[in-house]
Amino acid sequence: MYKPANHILVIFGASGDLTRRKLIPALGELQKLGLLPDSFAVLGVGRSKFDDTSYREMISSHMENAEEMLPLLYYHSMDTQAEEDYGALAKRLDQMGSELQIDPSYLFYLATPPSLYEIVPRLLSGVGLTREREGIFRRIIIEKPFGMDYRSAVELNRALLSHLQEHQIYRIDHYLGKETVQNLLVTRFSNGIFEPLWNRNFIRHVEITSAESLGLGTRGGYYDNSGALRDMLQNHLLQLVGLVAMEPPTVISSDA
After folding, report:
1. Staple partner for 236: which of 126, 175, 198, 228, CB 3.0–4.6 Å?
2. Each residue of 146-159: pLDDT tens digit?
3. Is residue 254 part of a domain?
């Protein structure tokens, strides 16, 4: 069974909605399946004044059957916009590597407001946390929305590439990880019944419905800046439109 290299996952926005409801529970499922590295830890980063113990208590209150996952969770409180705080973060990661008895790779997940997508990578780079060497990787995962419009997306991409190489950047829309969404491609291109009929000659219209049962919760600040249109339509729903309406790919790979 394949397992990824030993590493520390650093989640910025560690007390936020995405981390509590999606990221940590997903890691728990990977742990149950035996798909986490042999040496692995999660360092949550944020402004909230948690320590390791109180952070684990907070996560356990939002996650069922969290007992096995909790020992892997740690927390580091800092101002993610303050350059002077990143030296302490680097020291904390060195300490965790020593405790795990490994020279770890780092995977940084920005579960933060989009306003931090340029700031955090720049400050990580400033203390050497994005520098790779043989056998050790440094990766950054950026959630949607990637920019507020075309111009800001281009500018963000340019800013990221001034501190990172392309292979270090993962641009993620978590909607594409849903099983039903992934099955769209199988239904379209691996199904002899549907593939010949999936075109304008046989399909009158396409309707995509996103039905949410959750309210804003603690995400009011995020919605004040982005709004529902940018939060759902220009990423999640347009990605679905792309999967439904795209031409058959000539090459199936990540670079296609």
Report:
1. 175
2. 877 889 889 999 99
3. no
In this structure, are 93 and 188 located in the same domain? no
pLDDT of residue 186: 85
- Residue 29, SS3? helix
Quote the distance between the C-alpha of residue 133 and its chain's center. Answer: 23
> According to the model, what pLDDT value does residue 144 have?
77
The domain boundary residue, chosen from 121, 142, 172: 172
Angle separating helix axes 179-189 and 238-245, nearest 10 degrees: 20
- Among candidate residues 137, 172, 207, the one where a domain is terminated: 172
Judge if 47 and 131 occupy the same domain.
yes
Of the candidates 7, 167, 205, 236, the residue annotated as catalytic is: 236
Q: What is the pLDDT of residue 220?
A: 65
Residue 97 has pLDDT above 90, yes or no: yes
Which pair of structure tokens corresponds to residue 80? Answer: 């993610």
- Domain with 210 in it: 176-245
Nearest-CA neighbor of 42 among 125, 117, 123, 100?
100
Q: How many C-beta atoms lie closer than 10 Å to residue 54's C-beta?
A: 12
Backbone angles phi, psi at 198, to 5 degrees: -85, 70
How many C-beta atoms surround the C-beta of residue 243 within 10 A? 15
Asked if 236 is an active-site residue, the reply is yes
